[in-house]
Design a protein that fits this description.
Elements: H1 3-43, H2 49-52, E1 61-67, H3 74-81, E2 89-96, H4 102-110, E3 112-115, E4 128-135, E5 143-148, H5 153-163, E6 168-172, E7 177-178, H6 182-192, E8 197-207, E9 212-214, E10 217-220, H7 227-249, E11 260-264, H8 265-270, H9 281-295, E12 300-312, H10 318-338, H11 349-364, H12 366-382, H13 388-416, H14 425-439, H15 441-457, H16 471-474
Parallel strand pairs: 1-2, 1-6, 2-5, 8-12
Antiparallel strand pairs: 3-4, 4-5, 6-11, 7-12, 8-11, 9-10
Helix pairs in contact: 1-7, 1-13, 7-13, 7-14, 10-11, 10-15, 13-14
């Protein structure tokens, strides 16, 4: 056997092992997630959140929403944040140096005036620009608007933490739509686990593209026409329902979606708040908080609930989609490198021995291994070493597993929260499942590889801007 044959054989077995291991992980995570979701539904079936957690003695929460040039969404989304059933909360909108008329719209819509307000500078941030505003209308007494110098999303969140006087913080993208009972459900894990410090909770994020939204409320759930948008709906269902629930059960959750997550403010301040230099600040702060708790030898959990609590607008064109996934890839690399001490370190328990290796091998390295696999295939063809029958069976098996896994995800959604009730929705999702690997996945792979390249060779790569149509326009693009 020649040296080339030996190398090709090694690659052959490595790809087989990698494929078997990743499929096994996906199956186990899906099983754990489904069991946990069913148990959660049974346990909370008769809980009256509105009565139990809407009293004035309930834990205090600050919703912090950074806003930068969000003129299209700002009024509707602030209205949705102020419509929450929870009693003991306030809403802090941090206008992060917007250059559009976001602030002017807020002042006019909510009758805001500038006030003197104590800011406890526990975390360094960019300074105030225009001041702090409160409403003269008692109906909007929960609203606080801050106009500050632009410093980025992480800096705006840190400013919100500084100005908050409440025990817990709920960090949300201002372009997201928060359901009325979201705070009741998100705070519950903090109250249930009395012997364990819950440092953060997350919930299911759903895509609002195609939905009917009026007055800051979700009125009707529809399926968008675009294959790109539908594929993201499918991806979110897979990720949130068949992944994060399992990682929560294993106490290995490493990320809470930046679109909506709740934190113990005291712990967030102890670790220094959000990292303003990171493009993956939502993942980074969770890993840093977990690392801190492990090093302090404190009993803790990062909780997750499967309720669909927050709806957001997803990219509807490939340029913005690729930019978003590029940033996700750079953020993942950055966090794993920054906290590499955790990897395979028994000191960090499940975080170091299970979560970190999984993220490194099956998230960080997955696109690189896939590209190496494509190159390997081309080499086999060039040297006329490819067994076409074997290759066909391998690709068919991989494709069928992807299809079946996605089908399990939408069946799980159907049997639990059943958000997509319209006639024909199932057929559209199944069509998306069948076509996604051929139409959408190549763009995902390209974005991930470009993210790797940009991280190491393009230091000028930016955070990535998400240009939105605005949730108030979404109702016009549904089926």
């Amino acid at each position: 056997m020649s040296a080339i044959d030996s190398i090709l054989l090694i690659f052959h077995y490595l790809f087989i092992v990698y494929t078997v291991v990743i499929i096994t992980f996906y199956i186990l995570l899906a099983i754990i997630s489904i069991v946990e979701t069913v148990e959660y539904k049974k346990k909370n079936k008769f809980v009256n959140y509105k009565e139990i957690l809407s009293s004035n003695i309930s834990p205090s929460i600050s919703i912090i929403a950074p806003a930068y040039n969000e003129s299209l969404n700002i009024i509707e989304n602030v209205r949705s944040l102020l419509s929450n059933y929870y009693a003991n909360y306030d809403v802090i909108i941090v206008n992060d140096g917007s250059t559009d008329d976001s602030l002017e719209k807020l002042i006019e819509a909510y009758n805001l005036v500038k006030v003197n307000y104590l800011i406890n500078q526990q975390i360094p941030t960019k300074p105030v620009r225009g001041g702090v505003y409160k409403s003269k209308n008692p109906a909007f007494e929960k609203l606080i608007v801050v106009d500050k110098v632009n410093g980025g999303k992480a800096d705006a969140l840190n400013f919100g933490i500084n100005i908050s006087t409440n025990k817990y913080i709920a960090c949300i993208d201002v372009d997201c739509l928060l359901l009325e009972d979201a705070l009741q459900k998100m705070i519950k894990p903090f109250l249930e686990l009395t012997e364990t410090t819950v440092i953060a909770t997350g919930g299911v994020l759903r895509i609002a593209n195609g939905c009917t939204i009026k007055g800051g409320k979700l009125l009707d759930v529809n399926m968008p026409k675009s294959m790109l948008e539908r594929s993201q709906i499918l991806e979110y269902i897979r990720s949130f329902l068949l992944g994060r629930m399992a990682w929560s059960r294993l106490n290995g959750l490493m990320v809470i979606s930046g679109a909506f997550g709740m934190f113990d403010k005291k712990i967030a301040i102890e670790v220094g708040g959000y990292d303003t230099s990171s493009v993956g600040e939502d993942m980074e702060i969770i890993v840093r908080m977990r690392r801190y708790m492990e090093e302090e030898k404190r009993n803790y959990r990062v909780a997750y609930i499967p309720d669909p609590l927050c709806w957001t607008e997803a990219p509807d064109n490939y340029k913005i989609f690729i930019s978003q996934r590029n940033r996700w890839a750079r953020g993942t690399i950055e966090v794993l490198r920054k906290h590499k001490k955790i990897g395979m370190n028994p000191k960090y328990k499940s975080l170091g021995l299970l979560s970190f290796p999984y993220w490194f091998i099956f998230e960080r390295m997955a696109p690189i291994i896939e590209v190496i696999g494509i190159i390997y295939l081309c080499i086999l063809i060039a040297f006329k070493e490819l067994r076409w029958d074997y290759a066909f069976v391998f690709f068919l098996a991989a494709y069928l597993f992807t299809v079946v896994f996605s089908l399990v995800a939408i069946i799980s959604e159907e049997k639990t929260y059943h958000q997509y009730k319209k006639k024909g929705t199932g057929l559209k999702l199944i069509t998306t499942i069948l076509l996604e690997p051929f139409i959408i996945h190549p763009f995902v792979l390209y974005a991930a590889i470009k993210g790797n390249f940009d991280y190491f060779f393009n230091k000028d790569a930016k955070w990535g801007e998400m240009k939105r149509k605005g949730l108030t326009e979404i109702e016009n693009i549904s089926d």
